[in-house]
Write a structure and sequence with these properties.
Length: 218
């Protein structure tokens, strides 16, 4: 579900052209997963072809009241709505409590400096702070392999025959929502907060103030 709040009356609205680029070839993921497409919402510097991102074009044409967009991801397959992207605003009905903001550290991806990670009583993760990216296009919470292995040990995850990690309370099997960033070839340790994290926290991306907001999702 995508919706855009508007500060003007319906009679005063005018349609303005915003270009979208269709892809020529579908990869395996597009064939195997039922979705309609991908919308890139990072900063313009990430664009490999120097193409203006959709939300930048929307902001430039002043089609939204605020230069922000926000995500709500349903926590179960039967959730209604299953997910929601708001362009130009925040849906306060989708979260509870106050919004906590962190500053964007570099205007490429939506990245910030995370202070630490804690799993149970173990605080030996992200020691001294670490580079972190919030990415709605990533399924898991990802980090350095050695630290992810220790998190899986803390939660009691065990490898299955398919190399998946699962936990069990003898009734329901849950696959661990963690992956590694070691294969990305970054020069410094990287953490990614993907959909597993964003299902728990309503997330606001603020281009005007260059900050990311988190609040507990309903």
């Amino acid at each position: 579900m995508v919706w855009c709040p508007h500060s003007h009356s319906p009679k005063s609205r005018t349609r303005r052209k915003v270009s979208f680029g269709p892809n020529q070839f579908d990869g395996a993921i597009a064939r195997d997963v039922p979705f309609d497409g991908i919308i890139g919402l990072a900063y313009p510097k990430v664009s490999s072809l120097k193409v203006k991102p959709v939300f930048d074009a929307i902001m430039e044409k002043k089609l939204v009241p605020q230069s922000v967009f926000s995500f709500y991801l349903g926590r179960s397959s039967d959730a209604r709505p299953a997910g929601e992207l708001v362009l130009g605003g925040i849906n306060h009905e989708r979260f509870k409590g106050s919004m906590h903001y962190v500053s964007v550290s570099k205007k490429r991806h939506w990245e910030f400096q995370m202070d630490r990670v804690q799993a149970g009583s173990d605080k030996r993760f992200c020691v001294g702070g670490c580079w972190t990216v919030v990415d709605s296009g990533s399924s898991l919470i990802e980090g350095p392999q050695e630290e992810i292995d220790r998190i899986n040990k803390v939660i009691g995850a065990q490898k299955t025959e398919h190399e998946r990690l699962q936990t069990s309370n003898n009734k329901v099997r849950c696959y661990a929502g963690f992956g590694t960033t070691d294969d990305y070839g970054t020069k410094k340790p990287l953490w990614i907060l993907g959909q597993v994290f964003m299902r728990k926290f309503y997330t606001v991306f603020d281009r005007n103030a260059d900050r990311i907001g988190f609040a507990e999702a309903r």
